Amino acid sequence: MSNSLQGKVALVTGGSRGLGAATARSVADAGAHVAITYVASADKAAEVVKELGHKGVQAAAFQSDQAHAALAPQLIDDVVARFGGLDIVVNSAGIGVESGKTIDDPSINTAELDRMHATNYTGVIAIIRAAAKVLRDNGRIINIGSGIGTRAGTPGFTDYAATKAGLIGYTKGAARDLARRGITVNMVQAGLMLTSMEPPSPEVLELMVSNLAIRRVSEPAETAGVITFLASPAASYITGAVIDSNGGYTA
Prior knowledge:
The protein is an alpha/beta fold. About 40% of the residues lie in helices and about 15% in strands. It contains seven helices and seven strands; from the N terminus they run E-H-E-H-E-H-E-H-E-H-E-H-H-E. It has helices spanning about 20-30, 40-55, 70-85, 110-130, 160-180, 200-210, 220-230, and strands at about 10, 35-40, 60-65, 90, 140-145, 185-190, 240-245. Strands 3-2-1-4-5-6-7 form a seven-stranded parallel beta sheet, with helices on both faces. Helix 4 (about 110-130) links the parallel strand 4 (about 90) and strand 5 (about 140-145). The two termini are about 25 Å apart.
C-alpha cells in the first residue's frame, strides 16, 4: 500500500504509544500526514512526531484527554487548522482498568470503571460526532475494539467488554449515516498485544492466550496494517464491518 494515502490527513488518537503509535507509523509510511493525541506522555508524543517527520510527512501532537468528551470539538478544530483538513480518524486511544476483577468484587474501583467508560465509549463518540462535521468526502473512520466486545471469554472484563460492544453498534449506525458522503466507518477488534495498557495478571493472561487459535501475544504493527488497509482506497466498499485482528479469539 505504498503511497496509498499520499496527501491525506489522519488523526490517530492515543498515538504516542502502543497500537496508536504503530498505526501512526503505518499510515505515515503510506503517505499520510498525521496528527496524534496524548494525555500526559508529551515526551513520547514528541518522539513519535519526530520519527514521522523523518518519513517525509507532516506530523503534530495534540494534548487531549478523551475521558472529557467536551474537549473533542476543539481537538478536531485544532487538527483541521494545523493541516487544512481531515480525511481519516483512527480512534485508538483506550484504557483497561481493574482487569480480572468480577463485578461483585468488594475491592473493585467503580470510579476507575466510570473513567474507562468515558474514555473508551463516550469520548470516542464525541470525537466521531465532531469529526463527521468536517471529514472530507470519501473519508475513513476506524474504531479500535476488542474481541472481548463480542466474546468476554473469561470473568473479570464486564465493563471493558461493554465499552467495546457499545462501539460496535455506534460503528454500524455511523456507517449508515455517513455512507451518502462516501465515508466508511469500520471497527477493528484487536487482540492481546504488547502495549502500555494495564496488563491482566499472569494467570489471566495465560488463560487468555490459551483461548487463541494463534497462541501468542501479537505485535501492534500486525493490527496497524489492518487499520491502514481500511484507511486506503482499496477498502472503499467496506463499511459497517467488524474485522477481527486477534489471533482467532473469536473463532
